[in-house]
Each structure stands twice: as C-alpha cells, then as structure tokens.
Amino acid sequence: MVNEGTNQPPGESFNKVPLLIVLISGAFVAILNQTLLATALPHIMEDLELNANTVQWLQSIFMLVNGIMIPITAFLIERFTTRGLFLTAMGVFALGTVICAVAPNFGFLMVGRVAQAAGAGIIMPLMQTILFLIFPLEKRGAAMGMFGLIIAFAPAIGPTLSGWLVEHFPWRSLFYVILPIVIVDIIVAYFILKNITKQTFPKLDILSIILSTLGFGGLLFGFSTAGNSGWGSMQVVVSMIVGAVALVWFIRRQLKLEKPILEFRIFKYKIFTLTTILGMVVFVAMIGGAVILPLLMQTMLGFTAFESGLMLLPGALLMGIMNPITGRVFDKFGARWLAIIGLTILVITTFMFTNLDAQTTFLYLSVVNVFRMIGVAMVMMPVTTAGLNQLPSNLIPHGTAMNNTMRQVSGAVGTALLVTVMTTAALPEQGVSGMIHGVNVSFVVAGITAIIGLVLSFFLKGSRPEGEGKKIKIGS
Length: 476
Known about the structure:
The chain is mainly alpha-helical. Helix content is about 75%, strand content about 0%. α1 runs antiparallel to α5. The radius of gyration is 21 Å and the shape is globular.
C-alpha cells in the first residue's frame, strides 16, 4: 500500500474541479466495468468452451468481492492517506483489467475479475467520503448529484457499448477499452490528488476482517444464487446460515471494540438509519426494472438483447440527468418532499407494470420505465446525502461504507426475491400469458416495497442541510 504525504485539512481552499474529474473518472470505469460483461458472456462461453453456470461466476465473483471489500474500506480510509489508497485501488483495478485482457483461460479471467472488484470496492466509498469532506453542507447535494449522474450513466451505456464491441471485435476488447482510461486516471491522480481524509491509524483486527468477509460474503452469495438454485438448495442454505452467524458475531464484536472496523453505532443517528432503509427499499424496487424487464422482453415478448438494453437506456440517461438537478433542489429544500414525491411516482409506475400481457409494446415499457427512473432519481441521492449529513466528519468513512454495503445487500436480496417470485408465480401450462403472470406478481411485490418506502418517507424530518444534527458520542 502506497502511504505518503500529509493530510489536506478539509476546510482548506483549493481547486476542486481537477479532483472531481479524477474521482468521477475512477468511479465511472469501476461501474462501467461491472455492466460491460453481461452482453459478452455468450462470446466468452464460446471462446473458452464454458457452460452458462460457470461463466456466470464472472459476474457473481465481482459482486461478491466488491461486497466484501466495501465494509473494510472505512478501516482502510482511516489507516492510509487519500492518495495512497486511491492510487493503490486504481492500480489493483488496472492490474485486474490487464489480467482479464490477456487471460488464456477461465482461471486467469476469474483472478482478473477478483482484482478488479477489490479495487472497485475501495474506489466507490472513498469517493463518497472525499466528496463529503471537501464540500460544505449546503453544497453536498449538488456534489452527490454529480456522483449520481455517473452511477446512472455508466450502467446506461454499458450494455449498449458492450453489445457493439463484441459484435465487431473479440470480447477482450472490453478490457482494452477500459485500460487506457484507468492508466490516464492514475497518472493524473498522482500529480493532482490531495490527502483529504484524516488518518487515525486504527488497529487491524484480523478476526473482524474474517467475520466481515464470511458474513457479508455468505449472505450476498446466498441471495445471489437463490434466484437460480432455489431457496432450498444446500449451497444457498449453508451460505445463508454461515453468513448470518458470522454477521451477528461481527456486529457484536464491533460494538465492543474501541476502534471498530465498521462502526455500527452510527445507527444511533435516526435520520441516517431511516435514509439507509429508504435507500435499500428504493434499490429493491428499482431492481425490478433492471432485472425483470429484460427477462420479460427477451424470453416472453420476443425482443432481442439489444432491444431490451435500448428500452432501459432512456430511463437510465434521464435518471443521470436528473441527479444533479435533484441534488441542487436538496441543497435548498432538504430530502423530505423530494422523497415523498419520488416514491409516489415510483409506486404508481411500478403498479403500471403489474398488468403486462403478450401485447405490451416496447413504447409502453420504455415510457413507464422513464418515469420510474425519475422517481428513483428524486429519492436515491437526496436521502443518501441527508443521512450522511447527520454524521460528524470522523464518522463519514463509516457512513459511506455502511451505505454502500447495505445497497449491495439490498441489490442481491431484491434480485433473488423478485426472480424467485416471478418463477414461482408463473403458470407454464398457460404458455406466454402464464409466464407473464409471474412477472406481474413480481412487480406487485416491488410495488408493495415502494409503498413501505413511501410511508417511511413521511418520517423524514430534520433532513434540511443547514446543520449536521445532534452529535452523539460514539465510543467504547
């Protein structure tokens, strides 16, 4: 781990634009990389002579390692300098990209994906932490809006770009496209990135790292494989039990440590707890559009993979455009009414997907999805910002790590839940109509989740950005 330089005082004035470009570029390639591979999996299967179950691990392992790394980033942020941690994370990501690009077999490809995920798992929470430390309270909404723009834009262009590349070039081109961006970002970061985060040099607790890995890794693996393997399969049951036991042990240990790896006592801040739950609820509802709709279009309505990606594109792009706008609105008015209006839109549009049939058109799916994404944009970044605003500076690394971890978990849970509902509620004997019935029921579940979020949003008080809220002493 590179570790040099002195810390930049958060309040010191400096040009934030170059710093933002470096951070956003790093986040962009990390998220783009996660979404590029899905379209290329059939080509990788053919080239390396793999079956579908094996090749899917290239996606699953990325999510697993990413989810395992995120909780540990709070410790890493407090232990190492901003420059050292960012350059190391991007360096590991670049190394993984090179390994993937030249991988002669599946084993090397997996090693590359693990390295990429380890780097990406550090980059995202680190970027959020830096944004909160360099921007004053009244400007954090706009800053997080720019962050949200990247989060939405990268997945929007990922599948389309990937589809075009694998049609015209070998699948390895996906990694060669990302590599120059990563290298340029590392070079620029070396010269302009400042040390923002404060080093407190917490003690490395090996047992906590092991428990965190088993806990979050076990649960993520269990939920992510339940949709395909079934909830009763041995690997799902065992991984869920191991994950749950390890996570409980991990939490109990963190509450006893003077300097924990991940600070669970931040949930004493009520607004942070509420906004974290709201973010998870919205993410579960949003997963319906990202996972269920492409399955519906390709397996039931006869659309191609490219067409299903094209259907999602306007909604994802508009969500990206909306994020900076909702960020500025948050800076003026707070999160409460943004969340209430956004969740109302999300509830209505989700239930508009509960009456689909074999005649449902591309235009209907695309337009309704656009409005769903507008609703998501009004909630996701504003409530995240409102929650993190409640935390004092020393707890922001723990807040961003916890927020990203909970989002990963809710994504895995949401995918498994909605796919399971879709398959169990389907009526195969009724043909396409019976299969679509399963999709409708899954959106009913997603709609109920959105209603829960709407009810919770009315309790979102004191989320205006004027102050950091009541400070609660957190210690042993």
